[in-house]
Amino acid sequence: MIRKMKEEIELFSRHIVIVRAVLANQPIGIMKLAEHLNLPSHRIRYSLHVLEQFGYIRASPDGAIATAKATRLLNGIDADLNDLIRLLGEMKSVR
Predict the structure, then answer these.
(1) Cα dihedral sign for 77, 78, 82, 88?
(2) Contact 52/60 with Cβ under 8 angstroms?
(3) 2, 5, 48, 95: most buried by Cβ count inside 10 Å?
């Protein structure tokens, strides 16, 4: 169970890295992102698909473009991650 949660966190981390890269370099295509982030193009493609489904990016003829929703996600991520860290800390102390 913990291993699965760790895998999901790692996947979420990759999605966030990709959102940040799109925001900083938009519009940007899969190959440029893969080169820039040193990740395989199939992982970039998957993350872009997920991010598009959630409305954080959109496709354009020139590549991925971040939406306002992506900016809001990144603006609030520190608080959200702090909440998760707090919850994990509480779980750790429960015996």
Answers:
(1) positive
(2) no
(3) 48
